[in-house]
Amino acid sequence: MDSLTQFTLGAAVSVAVMGRRTAAWKAALWGGIAGTLPDLDVLVDHGDAVLNMVLHRAESHAFVYLALLSGPLAWLVSRLQREPELVRRWWLAMALVLLTHPMLDLMTVYGTQVWHPFSDQAYGAGSIFIIDPAYTLPLLLGLGLAVSARAGGLCANQIGLGISTTYLAWSLLAQALVTHQARQDLHAAGLPSHTLLVTPTPFNTLLWRVVTMDGKRYHEGFYSLLDRGRTIRLAAFPSGHALAQQHASHP
Fold first, then answer.
1. Which run of H or E residues covers position 224?
2. Alpha-carbon dihedral of residues 146, 147, 148, 153, nearest 10 degrees?
3. pLDDT number for residue 114
Protein backbone atom coordinates (compact mmCIF):
# COMPACT_ATOMS: atom_id res chain seq x y z
CA MET A 1 0.00 0.00 0.00
CA ASP A 2 0.97 3.65 -0.21
CA SER A 3 3.22 5.23 2.43
CA LEU A 4 0.46 7.34 4.02
CA THR A 5 -1.69 4.27 4.56
CA GLN A 6 1.16 2.23 6.04
CA PHE A 7 2.12 5.09 8.37
CA THR A 8 -1.50 5.49 9.47
CA LEU A 9 -2.03 1.77 9.98
CA GLY A 10 1.15 1.51 12.06
CA ALA A 11 0.13 4.50 14.15
CA ALA A 12 -3.40 3.18 14.71
CA VAL A 13 -2.17 -0.30 15.70
CA SER A 14 0.36 1.18 18.11
CA VAL A 15 -2.25 3.44 19.75
CA ALA A 16 -4.62 0.49 20.12
CA VAL A 17 -1.94 -1.65 21.79
CA MET A 18 -0.52 1.04 24.08
CA GLY A 19 -3.91 2.40 25.12
CA ARG A 20 -3.65 4.77 28.08
CA ARG A 21 -0.24 3.47 29.17
CA THR A 22 1.46 6.31 27.30
CA ALA A 23 0.43 9.46 25.46
CA ALA A 24 -1.50 8.68 22.27
CA TRP A 25 0.73 10.96 20.21
CA LYS A 26 3.82 9.04 21.33
CA ALA A 27 2.28 5.71 20.38
CA ALA A 28 1.09 7.14 17.05
CA LEU A 29 4.47 8.66 16.21
CA TRP A 30 6.51 5.53 16.89
CA GLY A 31 3.89 3.29 15.32
CA GLY A 32 3.91 5.39 12.17
CA ILE A 33 7.70 5.32 11.97
CA ALA A 34 7.83 1.55 12.49
CA GLY A 35 5.05 1.09 9.94
CA THR A 36 7.15 2.91 7.37
CA LEU A 37 10.44 1.06 7.99
CA PRO A 38 9.83 -1.98 5.72
CA ASP A 39 9.36 0.27 2.68
CA LEU A 40 12.77 1.88 3.08
CA ASP A 41 14.10 -0.91 0.86
CA VAL A 42 13.11 1.30 -2.08
CA LEU A 43 16.31 3.23 -1.34
CA VAL A 44 18.37 0.18 -2.40
CA ASP A 45 19.34 0.16 -6.09
CA HIS A 46 19.56 -3.40 -7.48
CA GLY A 47 20.88 -2.32 -10.87
CA ASP A 48 17.84 -1.77 -13.09
CA ALA A 49 14.17 -0.85 -12.90
CA VAL A 50 12.88 -4.41 -13.28
CA LEU A 51 15.00 -5.80 -10.44
CA ASN A 52 14.15 -2.80 -8.26
CA MET A 53 10.46 -3.68 -8.59
CA VAL A 54 10.89 -7.45 -8.26
CA LEU A 55 13.14 -7.24 -5.19
CA HIS A 56 10.99 -4.64 -3.42
CA ARG A 57 8.92 -6.23 -0.63
CA ALA A 58 11.49 -8.99 -0.17
CA GLU A 59 13.69 -9.40 2.94
CA SER A 60 12.41 -6.14 4.45
CA HIS A 61 8.88 -7.57 4.42
CA ALA A 62 9.72 -11.04 5.77
CA PHE A 63 7.83 -12.08 8.89
CA VAL A 64 10.92 -13.65 10.48
CA TYR A 65 13.15 -10.60 10.10
CA LEU A 66 10.46 -8.16 11.20
CA ALA A 67 9.70 -10.24 14.28
CA LEU A 68 13.40 -10.23 15.17
CA LEU A 69 13.58 -6.47 14.64
CA SER A 70 10.63 -5.77 16.93
CA GLY A 71 12.56 -6.55 20.14
CA PRO A 72 15.51 -4.16 19.65
CA LEU A 73 13.17 -1.50 18.28
CA ALA A 74 10.92 -1.76 21.34
CA TRP A 75 13.93 -1.51 23.65
CA LEU A 76 15.10 1.63 21.83
CA VAL A 77 11.66 3.27 21.90
CA SER A 78 11.12 2.52 25.59
CA ARG A 79 14.50 4.06 26.43
CA LEU A 80 13.99 7.14 24.27
CA GLN A 81 10.57 7.67 25.85
CA ARG A 82 12.00 6.98 29.32
CA GLU A 83 9.44 4.23 29.83
CA PRO A 84 11.61 1.15 30.46
CA GLU A 85 8.83 -0.39 32.54
CA LEU A 86 6.70 -0.52 29.36
CA VAL A 87 9.27 -2.32 27.23
CA ARG A 88 7.15 -5.47 26.93
CA ARG A 89 4.12 -3.48 25.88
CA TRP A 90 6.20 -1.54 23.35
CA TRP A 91 7.51 -4.87 22.11
CA LEU A 92 3.97 -6.08 21.43
CA ALA A 93 3.11 -2.79 19.73
CA MET A 94 6.20 -2.77 17.51
CA ALA A 95 5.76 -6.44 16.60
CA LEU A 96 2.16 -5.95 15.51
CA VAL A 97 2.99 -2.75 13.64
CA LEU A 98 5.86 -4.35 11.72
CA LEU A 99 3.94 -7.53 10.92
CA THR A 100 0.73 -5.82 9.80
CA HIS A 101 2.72 -3.91 7.18
CA PRO A 102 3.43 -6.97 4.96
CA MET A 103 0.04 -8.43 5.84
CA LEU A 104 -1.60 -5.39 4.27
CA ASP A 105 0.74 -5.56 1.27
CA LEU A 106 -0.35 -9.17 0.78
CA MET A 107 -3.78 -7.82 -0.15
CA THR A 108 -2.37 -6.00 -3.21
CA VAL A 109 -1.40 -7.50 -6.56
CA TYR A 110 2.33 -6.73 -6.63
CA GLY A 111 3.51 -9.62 -4.49
CA THR A 112 5.19 -9.73 -1.08
CA GLN A 113 7.95 -12.20 -0.17
CA VAL A 114 6.90 -12.76 3.44
CA TRP A 115 8.56 -16.18 3.89
CA HIS A 116 12.19 -15.14 3.47
CA PRO A 117 14.68 -16.69 4.13
CA PHE A 118 12.84 -19.95 3.48
CA SER A 119 11.30 -18.93 0.15
CA ASP A 120 11.51 -16.05 -2.30
CA GLN A 121 8.03 -16.74 -3.65
CA ALA A 122 5.95 -13.55 -3.83
CA TYR A 123 2.32 -13.71 -2.72
CA GLY A 124 -0.51 -11.28 -3.36
CA ALA A 125 -4.28 -11.57 -3.16
CA GLY A 126 -4.80 -8.59 -5.46
CA SER A 127 -8.13 -7.69 -3.88
CA ILE A 128 -7.36 -4.03 -3.13
CA PHE A 129 -5.66 -1.27 -5.11
CA ILE A 130 -2.46 0.18 -3.64
CA ILE A 131 -4.33 3.43 -2.85
CA ASP A 132 -7.90 3.15 -1.64
CA PRO A 133 -9.46 6.01 0.36
CA ALA A 134 -12.23 3.74 1.66
CA TYR A 135 -9.57 1.80 3.56
CA THR A 136 -7.40 4.70 4.69
CA LEU A 137 -9.98 7.30 5.75
CA PRO A 138 -11.49 5.32 8.67
CA LEU A 139 -7.97 4.81 10.01
CA LEU A 140 -7.17 8.52 9.68
CA LEU A 141 -10.38 9.65 11.35
CA GLY A 142 -10.09 7.26 14.27
CA LEU A 143 -6.41 8.04 14.76
CA GLY A 144 -7.04 11.77 14.58
CA LEU A 145 -9.62 11.58 17.37
CA ALA A 146 -7.28 9.49 19.51
CA VAL A 147 -4.31 11.82 19.11
CA SER A 148 -6.44 14.93 19.72
CA ALA A 149 -7.20 13.50 23.18
CA ARG A 150 -10.94 13.88 22.71
CA ALA A 151 -13.31 11.81 24.81
CA GLY A 152 -13.74 8.41 23.25
CA GLY A 153 -10.69 8.88 21.04
CA LEU A 154 -9.19 5.47 21.83
CA CYS A 155 -12.52 3.84 21.10
CA ALA A 156 -12.75 5.76 17.81
CA ASN A 157 -9.31 4.47 16.86
CA GLN A 158 -10.42 0.89 17.46
CA ILE A 159 -13.57 1.47 15.44
CA GLY A 160 -11.46 2.84 12.57
CA LEU A 161 -9.29 -0.26 12.66
CA GLY A 162 -12.39 -2.44 12.68
CA ILE A 163 -13.96 -0.67 9.71
CA SER A 164 -10.77 -0.79 7.64
CA THR A 165 -10.26 -4.48 8.40
CA THR A 166 -13.87 -5.22 7.47
CA TYR A 167 -13.28 -3.39 4.20
CA LEU A 168 -10.37 -5.73 3.44
CA ALA A 169 -12.67 -8.70 4.03
CA TRP A 170 -15.23 -7.11 1.72
CA SER A 171 -12.58 -6.72 -1.00
CA LEU A 172 -11.93 -10.48 -0.91
CA LEU A 173 -15.65 -11.20 -1.19
CA ALA A 174 -16.06 -8.76 -4.08
CA GLN A 175 -13.07 -10.31 -5.85
CA ALA A 176 -14.57 -13.78 -5.43
CA LEU A 177 -17.89 -12.62 -6.92
CA VAL A 178 -16.19 -11.09 -9.96
CA THR A 179 -13.94 -14.13 -10.37
CA HIS A 180 -16.99 -16.41 -10.46
CA GLN A 181 -18.63 -14.24 -13.11
CA ALA A 182 -15.41 -14.07 -15.13
CA ARG A 183 -14.92 -17.84 -15.14
CA GLN A 184 -18.45 -18.33 -16.43
CA ASP A 185 -17.96 -15.77 -19.22
CA LEU A 186 -14.55 -17.15 -20.20
CA HIS A 187 -15.94 -20.67 -20.40
CA ALA A 188 -18.79 -19.46 -22.61
CA ALA A 189 -16.28 -17.67 -24.87
CA GLY A 190 -14.02 -20.72 -25.08
CA LEU A 191 -11.13 -18.96 -23.34
CA PRO A 192 -8.87 -20.38 -20.60
CA SER A 193 -9.47 -19.37 -17.02
CA HIS A 194 -6.50 -21.02 -15.30
CA THR A 195 -4.43 -17.86 -15.91
CA LEU A 196 -7.19 -15.54 -14.74
CA LEU A 197 -6.25 -12.32 -12.93
CA VAL A 198 -8.96 -10.24 -11.24
CA THR A 199 -7.91 -6.94 -9.66
CA PRO A 200 -9.75 -3.73 -8.69
CA THR A 201 -9.35 -0.57 -10.71
CA PRO A 202 -7.84 2.45 -8.90
CA PHE A 203 -9.33 3.75 -5.65
CA ASN A 204 -12.33 1.41 -5.34
CA THR A 205 -13.62 -2.16 -5.04
CA LEU A 206 -16.66 -1.82 -7.32
CA LEU A 207 -15.05 -1.81 -10.78
CA TRP A 208 -12.70 -4.70 -11.53
CA ARG A 209 -10.19 -5.52 -14.27
CA VAL A 210 -10.23 -9.06 -15.68
CA VAL A 211 -7.24 -10.49 -17.59
CA THR A 212 -6.55 -13.97 -18.96
CA MET A 213 -3.66 -15.29 -21.06
CA ASP A 214 -4.29 -17.27 -24.25
CA GLY A 215 -1.10 -18.28 -26.02
CA LYS A 216 0.50 -15.17 -27.52
CA ARG A 217 -2.44 -12.94 -26.63
CA TYR A 218 -4.06 -11.67 -23.47
CA HIS A 219 -7.72 -10.79 -23.11
CA GLU A 220 -8.82 -7.87 -20.97
CA GLY A 221 -12.21 -6.71 -19.79
CA PHE A 222 -13.89 -4.80 -16.98
CA TYR A 223 -16.75 -5.74 -14.72
CA SER A 224 -18.64 -3.68 -12.17
CA LEU A 225 -20.54 -5.15 -9.25
CA LEU A 226 -23.35 -2.86 -10.38
CA ASP A 227 -23.54 -4.67 -13.74
CA ARG A 228 -25.70 -7.40 -12.18
CA GLY A 229 -24.54 -10.37 -14.25
CA ARG A 230 -23.78 -8.55 -17.51
CA THR A 231 -21.43 -10.56 -19.74
CA ILE A 232 -17.88 -9.23 -19.61
CA ARG A 233 -16.75 -7.82 -22.95
CA LEU A 234 -13.15 -8.89 -23.59
CA ALA A 235 -10.64 -7.30 -25.95
CA ALA A 236 -7.57 -9.22 -27.21
CA PHE A 237 -4.04 -7.77 -27.33
CA PRO A 238 -0.61 -9.18 -28.23
CA SER A 239 1.22 -10.24 -25.07
CA GLY A 240 4.73 -9.40 -26.27
CA HIS A 241 5.68 -13.07 -26.50
CA ALA A 242 8.70 -12.36 -28.74
CA LEU A 243 9.96 -9.70 -26.35
CA ALA A 244 9.61 -12.09 -23.42
CA GLN A 245 11.69 -14.70 -25.26
CA GLN A 246 14.30 -12.08 -26.11
CA HIS A 247 14.80 -11.33 -22.39
CA ALA A 248 14.27 -14.88 -21.13
CA SER A 249 17.67 -14.92 -19.44
CA HIS A 250 16.93 -11.86 -17.31
CA PRO A 251 16.69 -12.92 -13.64
1. strand 217-224
2. 10
3. 97
